[in-house]
Write a structure and sequence with these properties.
This protein is an all-alpha fold. The chain has one domain. Helices cover about 55% and strands about 0% of the residues. It contains 23 helices and 4 strands. It has a two-stranded antiparallel sheet with strand order 1-2. The chain has a two-stranded antiparallel sheet with strand order 3-4. The two termini are about 35 Å apart. It is a multi-pass membrane protein. InterPro entries: GT87, UCP010361. Keywords: Cell membrane, Membrane, Transferase, Transmembrane, Transmembrane helix.
């Protein structure tokens, strides 16, 4: 007789939940309940759920995401305004520190010229140029982004050139090339974030309304168009969805594409390895890992062979990069006056001490997370460990660019879907943008001193650490986990969902079986015949 935990066929297609089986946030979350008061209050007990011909939770979330992305575009639009100089030529209006005063700064705008995307003869990783840096003069430079992101920029530049060509014929409105390039990039990034929202909502199954947190996140309002990170979040969220649907090969392809845009999706392979190790599903993990590596190689190998030096630029610059102003290492240096982290950089060399400290701290965090995964009374959910690993990577890294926080948004919703908690963190993280902009403006131009900016960075880091602590608490106390209280085991788990532990370690997880296994979701009753 099969165990209750394995009663479901492991390869069976996931069943679509009926509207009655979904969690209603206005009944279970105080913040969601309060937010519904202006429109009539929480959902009624006898409301006809799931019968509207169009407005499903998925479409509501996507609609709210479109609204948030439009607001984000308006926030950045000040930085693509133009003016006419004394000669009558149109110029980008970045006078008087406009990007920082208006807080509209976006890397997309300066990268158009700094990455030589405005040169029709330039091709990423193959073309080079000479540039003066702080450590060297006339240094040879190449595209400094991973392949998918670099090609994304180049394609958008070509589309902008095509737009201008048609605009010169009078068929389309015209503007500065950089403004058209920004708008085209923002369009594709918007689609990428919509995919992130869609995939997260589809992964949550019983809690589709939680995708609204991804759609209306304050971080989206500020950072969606700051850089190109929405590409990686879309690939990662879609990869997790494919894994949850028991499609490990598709998950591997999507994670490989995400890693070719930003390296952080590779961290999920480590998470999946630990979970599959505990569940005895290493063969499934192997397929995902193989397809991830194969996809990454297919994208990167042509450039490795044809333009090795240009392809290596991204890794070279990350090795040489000093600590960013909003890293914990800069906070330590500022408060203690110790310059050991960046002292080597004064000689134009690699910051070996800083890089070593980062590697050691991150590996220690990964070891601790693996220990948590193996000693928890019940196997943690994929979203919980994924959030912990990516958060540890950001907290220990020498760079936490503001748009990196977008990585955490869908993972946080999967890990701990408590609306008030997550929105509080997102608001804090989004508000760091204001002191950051005025810090870069400079004290001479009535900006903020560094201490004020670093104070907000510390608050942001403490908020993320606090969420990590709560996630670990729910891992060790599964009865406090909202996902499992609703009757699910791991909506994103795929082959891991309701799987019994097959591998144990001496001294680890002795009290695992003390927590009863959640029974499978009962099948939906048959619809009455008409």
């Amino acid at each position: 007789m099969p165990d209750q935990a394995t009663a479901e066929e492991p390869d069976a297609a996931p069943r679509t939940l009926t509207p009655a089986e979904r969690i209603v946030p206005s009944w279970n979350d105080p913040l969601a309940s309060a937010a519904t008061r202006p429109i009539g209050g929480p959902l009624g007990e006898h409301a006809a759920v799931g019968r509207h011909w169009f407005w499903s939770p998925q479409r509501v979330g996507l609609g709210l995401a479109v609204l948030a992305l439009v607001l984000c575009w308006f926030g950045k639009a000040s930085c693509i305004q133009q003016y006419q100089d004394s000669s009558g030529a149109s110029q980008l209006d970045w006078r008087a520190g406009r990007p920082f005063v208006a807080m509209c700064y976006s890397d997309i705008v300066p990268l158009y010229s700094s990455e030589r995307l405005n040169d029709p003869k330039t091709f990423p990783y193959v073309s080079s140029w000479q540039e003066d840096t702080q450590t060297a003069q006339n240094q040879t430079r190449y595209m400094e982004y991973p392949v998918v992101t670099g090609l994304f920029q180049w394609i958008n530049a070509k589309l902008a050139a095509g737009w201008l060509s048609v605009a010169n014929s009078g068929w389309l409105p015209s503007a500065l090339p950089v403004a058209i390039y920004f708008n085209i990039s923002a369009f594709w990034l918007s689609l990428a974030w919509l995919i992130t929202v869609w995939a997260t909502g589809r992964t949550m199954k019983r809690r589709p309304w939680d995708a609204v947190l991804v759609a209306i996140s304050p971080l989206v309002l500020v950072q969606a168009f700051t850089n190109f990170d929405a590409i990686a979040t879309a690939c990662t969220a879609a990869g997790i969805l494919a894994w949850s649907r028991k499609r490990p090969e598709i998950a591997g392809v999507l994670l490989g594409l995400g890693a070719a845009a930003k390296l952080y999706p590779l961290l999920l392979l480590g998470v999946l390895f630990v979970l599959c190790l505990r569940a005895g599903k290493l063969r499934t993990w192997g397929r995902t890992a193989a397809f991830t590596v194969l996809t990454w190689l297919i994208v990167n190998v042509p450039f490795i062979l044809v333009a090795t030096r240009g392809w290596w630029e991204f890794f070279r610059l990350n090795t040489l990069r000093p600590m960013d102003p909003d890293s914990i290492y800069n906070v330590i240096s500022y408060t203690t006056g110790w310059t050991g982290f960046d002292g080597v950089l004064q000689k134009g060399q690699t910051p070996a001490i800083l890089n070593t400290v980062i590697a050691v701290l991150f590996l220690l965090c990964c070891a601790g997370i693996a220990y948590v995964a193996l000693t928890a009374p019940r196997r943690p959910r994929l979203g919980q460990l994924a959030f912990l690993v990516v958060a540890a990577f950001l907290l220990t890294n020498k760079v936490w660019s503001p748009q990196y926080s977008l990585w955490l948004v869908p993972l946080a919703v999967l890990a701990i879907p408590r609306w008030r908690l997550l929105l509080s963190w997102m608001v804090i993280d989004a508000l760091v943008w204001a002191p950051r902009m005025f810090y870069y403006l400079g004290i001479d131009h009535k900006g903020l001193p560094e201490g004020w900016f670093l104070g907000t960075v510390v608050v942001r880091d403490l908020a993320v650490v606090g969420i990590c602590v709560l996630v670990i608490r729910e891992i060790y106390r599964p009865r406090t986990d909202l996902i499992r209280l609703a009757g699910d085991d791991d909506p994103a788990g795929g082959v891991l969902e309701r799987a019994r532990d097959r591998v144990t370690f001496p001294g680890f997880g002795k009290h695992r079986q003390a927590v009863p296994t959640v029974p499978p979701v009962p099948p939906a009753p048959p619809a009455p015949e008409s």
